[in-house]
Amino acid sequence: MTQFHLIKPGTLTVGTYTGFAPVTWRDDDGTARGRDIDLLRAFADKWNLNIVFHFFPFEQLWQRPGNNEIDIATGGITPLESRKTPGVVWSKPYYTVQRSLLIRATDREQYKTMSDFSGKKIVVTTGSTAQLDTEQRKPTNACIIYYDGNQAEIVSQLLDGTIDAFAEGDICSNYLATTCYPDQLAVTDVHPMNEPEHFVFAVREASGDHLLNALNTFIFDHCNDY
After folding, report:
1. Are 52 and 74 contained in the same domain?
2. Is there a contact between 157 and 147 (Cβ–Cβ < 8 Å)?
3. Which residues form a coiled coil (predicted)?
4. By the 8 A CB rule, do 72 and 209 touch?
5. How far is CA 205 from CA 6, 71, 79, 171, in A?
6. Helix boundaries (H) for the chain
7. What pLDDT digit, counting tens, does each position of 85-118 carry?
8. Cβ–Cβ under 8 Å, residues 165 and 101
9. Under DSSP, is residue 199 helix (H, G, I), strand (E, B) or coil?
10. For residues 159 and 76, what is the distance between their CA atoms, to the nearest angstrom?
11. Are residues 118 and 166 in the same domain?
């Protein structure tokens, strides 16, 4: 018997976001997928816990453990100072990401840095570090479009010319460009944030120190496999 004070005894309740493949996404049948998901499934298996996933918009996902909705929030979450939330503690980091822009492969010579997007349309996930980075760095007359959730829809708009770039972490951009849409998409403007952008889990403080400590130990042992 574990000493985790879970919302539902014996079950790890996880909240996640569906628009950051390969980090987190949802299959057509509603199954949670992704590297974050695999890591938490393995953690639950180690502790003989059931695990259930609930899907939420990305914006303020990290606040939900503090509202006692879930035990853990996951989905490429970076522990920004502005995201500190009562009742929520951060896990140790398990991955470090850089910012990037996903573009059409035919535009790779035209768009090399953010300054090349004057008068262009850039999509960002609402509430994300991509939003913060793009708002800070975009040319004055570039247009930011805010969205939440469907990567495939945004890629379709990128390929048909409706938009000009999709701002994401490099792990997502590289996955889409090399695995999902080879020869159709390319990645540009890869750069770090001013502070290293680490992925962490947002953990419900009321679930107890044992959960956080066990999760941190598991991250230490397995983050190189991420």
Report:
1. yes
2. no
3. none
4. no
5. 10, 8, 15, 29
6. 35-46, 129-137, 151-159, 170-175, 209-222
7. 999 999 999 999 999 999 999 999 999 999 999 9
8. yes
9. strand
10. 25
11. yes
DSSP string, 88-107: EEE----EEE-EEEEEEGGG
Q: pLDDT, tens digit, for every residue of 29-60?
A: 999 999 999 999 999 999 999 999 999 999 99
How many structural domains does the chain have? 2
- Flag whether 63 is in a domain: yes
What are the residues whose beta carbons fall under 8 Å from the beta carbon of 170, sequence distance 6 or more? 97, 98, 99, 100, 187, 190
Half-sphere exposure of 35 (CA within 13 A, CB side): 19
For residue 222, give the H/E element and its range.
Answer: helix 209-222
**95 neighbors 171 (Cβ within 8 angstroms):** yes
203 and 187 in a common domain: no
At residue 191, φ and ψ (nearest 5 deg) are: -160, 155
- Residue 201 near residue 95 (C-beta atoms within 8 A): no
> Under a CB-based contact definition with an 8 Å cutoff, are residues 95 and 226 in contact?
yes
pLDDT above 50 for 1: no
Helix (H) / strand (E) element for 77: namely strand 72-77
Distance, in Å, from the CA atom of 55 to the CA atom of 19, rounded to the nearest integer, reads 10
Helices and strands, number each (H, E), in the chain: 5, 14
